[in-house]
Amino acid sequence: MEKVFHPANSRGKADFGWLKANYSFSFANFFDPNKTNFGLLRVLNDDTVAAGMGFGTHPHRDMEIITIPLSGQVRHRDSMDHTKVVKAGEVQVMSAGTGVEHSEMNPSQHDLNMLQIWIFPEKQGLEPRYDQKNYEHLLQKNELIDLVTPKSDQKEEAVWINQNAYLKLGEFESGRKIAYNLQNQEHGVYIFLIDGSLKIDDHTLEKRDAMGVWKTSSLTIEVLKQSKVLLIEVPMS
């Protein structure tokens, strides 16, 4: 097993007043040659957006973009004629493909905290698409649920992307163990701890810490205190 540990305080940071951002990988003005990506996972941004503020219209292409609000809500508008509000408890996917423009605004009177995840697609030049689903009703203590799956392995309750990647989310009680089997031995899994405390081998993860693991077919995670964890499994090349 190979692994890399990314403590929360090693993330890139930006504070624009209306936006407080934490970058797990090189992004915008943050560059770390050792943190450009994890396999085909290119971006994991932990953004807090002030009330009434947000990202104006901007373009994307050839990227699978996943948004997971942790608290608050985001209003999405795009050049595919979608105007949607995505709330905590929902997951959104936008396949940028040949090109799309969109804006993301916080329409509420409270801060929005969201994870923005970019994964390289299986090929370039795909048709842009949009989807979102509510997952809150699926959450059960001490179980992982599917948030995102590949198109080839679609689940009714999950959104899908154009890549052989899986996102799973779970809330676990102290003392539990998470046994995770990778879908493919050529994959790795990036464990992002939203809240709580975990132990993986000899590493203890606290809130917003992360660890990437590869060259293994399975993984055991010890839950040290009540935790909410996101697992991102991606091809490593």
From TrEMBL:
GO molecular function: metal ion binding
UniProt keyword annotation of Amino-acid biosynthesis present: no
Binding annotation for Fe cation: H58, H60, H102, E104
Domain of life: Bacteria
Cofactor binding annotation: Binds 1 Fe cation per subunit.
Requisite cofactors: Fe cation
Entry keywords, A to Z: Iron, Metal-binding
Any Pfam family: Pirin
InterPro entries, alphabetized: Pirin, Pirin_N_dom, Quercetinase_C, RmlC-like_jellyroll, RmlC_Cupin_sf
Coiled-coil residue spans: none
Family that this chain belongs to: Belongs to the pirin family.
Stated name of the protein: Pirin family proteins
Organism lineage: Bacteria, Pseudomonadati, Bacteroidota, Flavobacteriia, Flavobacteriales
